Amino acid sequence: MDMNRSLDASASRAKGDAPAGRGLRLWARAMRVLLWLLAGLWGVFILSWLVLQAWIVPRIETWRPDLERWATQAVGIPVSIGAIRAVEAPKLAGVLPPLVPSFELLDVRLHDASGRSALELPLVRGAVSVRSLWNGGFEQLLITQPSLDVRRRADGRLEIAGIDVSGQGGGDHAAADWFFAQAEFVVRGGTVRWIDEQRQQPPVLLRDLDFVARNGTRTHELRLDATPEPEWGERFSLRARLREPLLRLPLERPAGQAPWDDWSGELYAEFARADISRLRAHADLSDWGVTVRSGEGALRAWARVQQGQVQGLTLDLALDGLDLQLAPDLPGLALSQARGRLEAQWSERGMALGFDDLAFITREGLVWSGARVRLEHTLARERQGARTAVQAQAVDLQTVAAIAERLPLPADARGWLARLQPRGRVDTLDLVWQARGSGPMAEHVVARAKGRVSALALAGEPSGRRSRNGRFPLPGRPGVEGADIDFDLDQNGGQATVAVRQGAFLLPDVFEDPRVALDRFDGRVRWQVKGDSLNVELDQASLANAHAEGTVRARWHTGDPAAQPAQPRLPGVLDLSAQLTRADGTAVHRYLPLSVPEDARRYVREAALAGGARQVSFRIQGLVDDIPFDEARHSPGSFRIEAALEGVDFDYLPAALQPQGEARWPGVRQASARFVLDRGNIHISEIRGRLDGAPGVALDQGGVDIEDMAHDTRVRVRAHGQGPAAELLGFAQRSPVNALTEGALATASASGPGEATVQIELPLRHLKDSTVSGSVKLDGTDLRLAPGAPLLARTRGTLSFTHQGFAFSGARSQVLGGELSFDGSLRPDAQGRAVAQFRGSGSASAAGLREGGLGPLSALAAHASGSARYTATLAFRGGAPELRLDSNLQGLALNLPAPLAKPAEAVWPLRVETSVLAQHNDQASSDRLSLQLGPAAQPLVDLLAERELRGDGARLLRGTLAVGLPAGERMALPPQGLHAQVRVGELDLDAWQALLRGSGADALASAGEAVPQAVSLRADAVLTGGRRFHRVVVGASREGAVWRANVDANELNGYVEFRPAGPAGAGSLYARLARLTLSPAAPSEADALLQQPSSVPALDVAVDDLQWGGRSLGRVEIEAVNRGGPTRVGEWRLNALRATLPEARLSASGNWAPLGGGEGGARRTALQFRLDVDDSGALLRRFGKEGLVRGGKGRLEGRVGWIGTPFDLDLGTLAGTLRLDVERGQFLKADPGAGRLLGVLSLQALPRRLVLDFRDVFSEGFAFDFVRGDARIDQGVIHTNNLQMKGVNAAVLMEGSADLARETQDLKVVVVPELNAGTASLIATAINPAVGLGSFLAQFLLRQPLQSAATQEFRVSGGWADPQVEKLARPTPAPTPGPTLQ
């Protein structure tokens, strides 16, 4: 068994070793063949090198003709070589020649077909190797500074150095084959001249051209760098890297085919700066339809070559001022900057276009930055349809739309962009169209798109179509602003999530204002497409803007004519419901669709002023074409809006819908209501609120119905309110009710409760046919029909009105203390015009008149008693009352001053009548007032006045007032103002003034409203100011505030002009009187007047003969001014007081001003005067002081002042200085009580007390040559120290004081007998007040020692009535030398 196994193993090894040995033998044989081939090659190489070195190089010049012929055959054009020589090179190892020898060819020229020198090569250096020798070429060709022509012939063929390289129209391309067969071809410092014979352009020169071509067996690398002319740009570079196919079939190239027609590889061009606009003259882009007008900048381009065809292009650009036209029929595209990369690829299978980070700025300022777009289109193939895919990122839609008209887009696409006006940004977009199948089946397209768009804005577009009845337009294509949309769709439908922030929906032909602004919107839209059917759903969407907030659900689908023939496919069927949690009532009109007629939308817009709702529901369901389903022929559907309104301000009849100039109907304020819009009608019900302008009136049961909006829209308003009658009356006055009542209540006032109802029907298309009805119910209301009219207290009645008039019947009121029954209505006047008239009768009592608020009449009624009956008629014309009142006043007593005192039983007819004289714009502008009291033939009072009627009352224009005149003697109406004529026996002005003052300031103000401009008064006696003037005749006139009068009476005669006080200061009195008699109380009366300093007028008065107290004061002139004013302290200044008498002349000036310069305190009178006396005795006798002095001429002057008025001399505060100098007179013997102070000066008391006998000197009065001296007054006490009296027999010297208030004195009297002329001369010397009597007397006695014994001294004290005289012992002065008496 083991033996058998060994034999089998040996056999197996023998079988395996036999194939292995055969393989080794074959490998050995192959190696031997390869080694022999290698050795042969090296032998050929060495043999060739030996031939090159030994045969060719040494004899190279002899080969020149052969080289010219060989070169001519190689390049295809004549070639000439001037000379050729070998270039010596270092030997290998110092022995062997170089492996690659070099040659220099001098003056090489290439000639074109015309024999012109196309290329001149001064020096060509060629290197030849064994390899190049085998290939029949050079190892390297180096050309230095060649001059080369590149020519485009007139037929379009291209020649380089005379060699046709256009590759078209046949040719063997020998030169190209030879060129690409050279291992390396180098050009340095060359010059190329471009000659364009086809376009006949000037030659273009390229300098410093460097060119390298390296050709391998299958690869070719080329590079060209050159510098163009400066205006063309900067140095540029062109490069190529190409490869031939590995296997070319057939092996032989077809005739006429260029060598590069099957090459592949890459081309590259780089321009650091180039003016591409210059290419227009040499480059023809008409096949592409592109025209480049300008542009400068940097360019880089890569081109992908496949099988000799350019199939892709990548372009990097950074250009400025690029202006190009992309198609002949398009506007130019001007870009101020362009940056980015453009890519394009194309092949027989399709194409791809795209750009990355492309950014440009148009000349208009549009900016495109950072967008990426790629478009791929694959052509249809067998069983596979065409496919198009678009990818985009960061695309600015506004820029695309703005330049769309300049891009080579389909006309439909440009039209869509122009209509949509897109704005926003495409953040991402993946879009694919894929045709299923090929051929006819390719029309079925599968599309899918997905992406996101930010801040999208698309313009809406009106539909241009109207509803079937033509009433309103059909909804157009919607638009949007500020939407962020994420979408995913295909050919069967899709969905989108829409979010809007601070944007808008554009709904043309849906709302009057198609733009619906949105603060927020979030929703999801889904749609499905099935054949011709389109179904769109809006899921629960939320929205909010300034007007509303809530949620919306909607579904819309196309109609199905097949199932329902009456249902068109478009505009489709809508099912919408919305719930709002907040709504602005003033914006409701903005969201009423155009299917709601314009009249109704305008009404809602003008009527809703404020308010809102918290619960609003919308429901629209049915055919869009039939909205709002308000006609019988419409298909069934629902169009309903419900809202609970709150805080509503609503004008049920807006002013814009009223006739021009008509009063506005007051609206409803702060109301609640229920709003329903149901198909073609609007119902506003359950209105509860307040009336505009009448917050106290509560409205209830109100409603507004707007019906038949599709045809003849009518508005029906109903309102009912209760509240204060004053506010309800205000409603009637401010609303058209005032015109309906002809202004009868225009100036009325009321208080108490009231109730009103109004119904208005308005056909909006025929507002002139509007109707109004209503009523105002008064129940215990106090009513006053006009200012100044009596109060109608506790009035009960109903005022009913319509648009045709009003009626007021069976009304009763308490008026003027009695009951009044009256009614009223519209009645035609004499001209047939409707006039509001009231008629009534009643009684009035004195108490009622007093409380009636009738101005002066009520004031006079305070002096009346009893009552009287009357009848009255009240009408209104032009908004003004026309009143007629008649009464005989029997039963009414008047306790008034004459001539209006009336007993109760007397019959005094009273007639009061007002009538409108003129109207302006249907408003009364003037009226006439007539009042007669007393018999018609001899009325006590007869007033006729014309007044201007204004909004704030009546203003007197002109009139006459006659008192006590027969009817025929009343003067005619003056041109303007009120003229009064008064003829009475006695007129007690004091009584009338007291009556008016007792009636209060209102009565005085009312009386002052009609101050006459002229007054004629004749009276037997006038009592005024407590004085009675007899036989008074006054003619007075007023010009503005100034009164001028001529007055004649027994007591005065002359001209007076008085200007009352005003804002500028106190008034003034100017008088020139021939005579004036003052009462004894005149100073007291003047003093009372001065208690109001600001009212003291300025005086300019001259009286020729002034009588006072039965004495004539002669001619008196007074000039004084009140210098008080708003900005300074009041001062009454006496500029001049002059009195002229036969015996004396007085002149004085002074002032009366507050102490301390401030108002409100005591005032001081200051007076400076001078009295020049011709006869002192006569002057004293004129003032009733007879027998005090006889004769005496001199003057008394000084300055005095006291606290008090000028007419109230306050001796206690009297101060000042006096100077007296009187000559040649005599103090007469008189009772001291009669002369008081003069009694002191007369020294009549001295004789009884003198030891010496001086009775002959003083007892019968002291005759004096002069009396003189100075005095100082302080607090009413006169002080003197130099009073001198000189008589014939004696001289008297005085010093001391006298108290004027207490009438006491304390005097020292020195009596010096006159013994000689020297004494008289000395005594006549004036005593200086600074020296005084004591010093003077001492000096005098020292100089006259003989007089010392006769001189007597006395002290006089006590009262003026009983002076006490005491003789004083006089010490004998010691003789003292000293100064003599001056």
From TrEMBL:
Residue ranges constituting the YhdP central domain according to the UniProt record: 29-1365
Biased composition (Pro residues): 1372-1382
InterPro entries: YhdP (IPR011836), YhdP_central (IPR025263)
Signal peptide segment: none
Transmembrane annotation, as ranges: 33-56
Pfam families linked to this entry: YhdP
Coiled coil, from the record: none
Positions of region (Disordered): 1362-1382
Protein name as annotated: TIGR02099 family protein
The species this protein was found in: Hydrogenophaga borbori
Organism ancestry: Bacteria, Pseudomonadati, Pseudomonadota, Betaproteobacteria, Burkholderiales
